[in-house]
Design a protein that fits this description.
single chain, two-stranded parallel sheet, alpha+beta
């Protein structure tokens, strides 16, 4: 997916990713596509619902998509 995004959007330089994408994907994205992956992590001492930085953008997009009846399940 990173390859398709990098090919379609040449000015893209930074990609925010969930904590599950840590590891070799960060180095691969930088070496192969010149994309910097910034991992948004949740700290272990948080309890309950806490809005993570930049995560609300993705959640807002999902909410807009789910308002469309065709995309609801």
């Amino acid at each position: 997916m990173l390859e398709q995004v990098a090919a379609a959007h040449h000015r893209l330089a930074l990609v925010w990713a969930d904590g599950g994408y840590t590891g070799s994907l960060i180095e691969h994205g930088l070496a192969a596509f010149a994309l910097v992956l910034a991992i948004v992590k949740r700290s272990d001492n948080m309890k309950g619902f806490v809005v993570l930085p930049k995560r609300w953008i993705v959640e807002r997009l999902f909410a807009h998509l789910m308002r469309s009846r065709r995309l609801a399940r």
